[in-house]
Amino acid sequence: MSNSNFDLAVGVGKDAINSGLQKAYQQHREAFRGSVTPAPIEGTTYTFAWDFLDAPSLVLAPPDKDLWAKMIKADGVTVLPDSGVLQFVAQKLQADCKVGDTALPRVTGKVTVALQLKLDGGGITVVPLGAWLENLPDGPTSIIVKNVVVPTLLTQGATFLKGLKIPAQDLFGQTVTLNLVRLDVIPTHLVLASAAKVSKPSAVGAAGADPVDWPTDKQVFTLISKGLLTTLLTAAIKQYENKQLAKGDKTVKFLASAKWDATFRRATNLTIGSDPTTASAGVDIDWHVELDLVPISPDGSGGCALTKAGHES
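-> structure tokens emitted (313 positions)
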């Protein structure tokens, strides 16, 4: 990351993504069913309802040529984009359509939707490209599904997550804004890279992204630039300035008593090492220690200060 043009990159493996979808499906079942009534088409009203009977999954690759040829395309889409394309797969999707007051036969089966993830003003937009249905009803219903239902749902899907951005985060008293500058869909991972802007002090944001060989041997990885890491560590340490680290006293009867206190003042010249898991800094700590020895006597009287020492930066 030392020579990259972004500050933070996160990669999530396909197994981790689909495990997350499975858990989300179990915990938020209601989010995987719904209905929509679009504007009437030539005076005819339509209502579409869907229910995922099993957890959907993502395939981090575009559909092959044969599957793409069979897909019902979104409006204006004829060819697959050359980047950011993946597949949303539902093994068992239940779909219902009502034309006016007449319900069409229910469709249940595997559905694959080709999607493109693209950057849009620092955010992510999901662009539906086409859909393939395993079980299409016969007759007039098939025509309605192909020419009305699927295109309408693809159009509706174009507004899903439109311009999604990462909200600003408050970290160690700093407001950190992450602006996405790179999105990669590779066969093993979905990768997001962003430039960081920190309110105090300012961090230099990225203007673009250089080619990078992302790690592919971990289900989830995070890469952070030395600049952002230095800024956040500096802010974290600053929160401890003038904080008391230790204070106490102890007396051993007839033998000695001791008092001590230490206060962290500041750290200076924080430097991230060539190995970014190491860092060094100059540290100022004020400390004071008193040790009194008590002569052993039958009545325990007497005493003398053996040493008093301290340091102030």
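The first helix runs from residue 14 to 27.
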